[in-house]
Design goal:
Strands 4-1-6 form a three-stranded antiparallel β-sheet. The protein is 20% helix and 25% strand. By secondary structure, it is α+β, with helices and mostly antiparallel strands.
Length: 119
Amino acid sequence: MGTNDELVVVMSPNSALNGTMARRALNIAAGDLTIGDPSIRGARVTQMAYGNFQTALLPRKALLRACPNVEDLIARPIDGVKPITSMFLRYYDLAHAHADKLAPAELDASRSTCSTSPS
């Protein structure tokens, strides 16, 4: 994607995903989420069955402030966050529906929190 200052949250509500991020294989169960680095050349994610998945680009610096180990979570399933995934998907749908009315500050990820460890 030609970016190196953002990370992407990949959410898989109803379909497993697989792919690669550099040399790391990526296998995400339906209902889980992961973090991706869009600056990695050749990174890919494939949906394994009918369903959908959402992605959101978030500022790397904001995520690092909120979750200093976020880069350790790249291309790893983040377990135990199904309630967070559900909430994030609802916010994603809400932001998508009203994106034309939201100011950039309202889309800032600087208030995010993270206490999850890598699998």
